[in-house]
Amino acid sequence: MPRRPRDSEAHIADADHALIDRFAEMLAADRGAARNTLLAYRRDLEQAAEALARSGGLGGADADALRTLVAGWSDLAASSLSRKLSALRGFYRFCEEEGLLAADPSASLARPTTRRPLPRLLDRGEMEALFVTAEARAASQEASDADVRLVALLELLYGSGLRASEAAGLPRAAFSSDRPYLIVRGKGDKERLAPLSDRARRALARWAARVPRDQPHMFPVGAKPISRHRLFQLVREAAAAAGIDPARVSPHVLRHAFATHLLEGGADLRALQTMLGHADIATTEIYTHVDSRRLVELVNARHPLAGAARRKPRD
Which domain holds residue 150? Predict the structure, then answer.
């Protein structure tokens, strides 16, 4: 995340700067946030940290301090207020999930009221091109470990809908070649079963054969799992190799494609909620917009009044 000059350095604790940096890294690596978005979120959080300096800063503020802070934003435009609330809520949710803070003091704040932006999308043809290119390299005699690993990672993101953090940090024990699912520990440290297609199992088994048996991570880099930032880079490199604009692609976009294409194929929204690990069905419902044409066709074909306009009235 691009840094802005720290003109208020004396008013913001180093601990708050470290937390903001961690959150920024996640936004850039996991969600592929645009540069202007990153700058705006950093500015919002640094201003909040400065305003909360007497209440313990971002890392020490309680719910009352946050409500007082937000009350001071009452004269802001709706879009600015929504962005600041999103920055605060996203920041504290991330810190709690990562174990950086014990609790989320922003839970009682009002949710942003502006409409949530629609996810960026890749169509089926683009996804096919992405996999054809990656699989061709992995199947060649000169295939490197990185080529085989890339296909396995793409299968987890698009074939199983995993979050970037879930794919990057997947334990080796989560996968078994005789199981059609993965045991994934997602947000809030909650476990779920993620579907694993036959082709995904083959891709993971091919990669697992190259990983030492005593290695706890499915995608290790030394003693640690691959970072979300590196995963983001790999996905964009794969997109470029397939002739797709890398700026349109990220691990999060592949997860969106997984959800979108399942809905287009007739998947149930509740089943999709379970597969994605969404606690709230409202989060899953954002994907319903992409299938609006199929929904209209369904109403026209199945609704009792659909043919009424075509029927001639009786004399």
Answer: 124-295
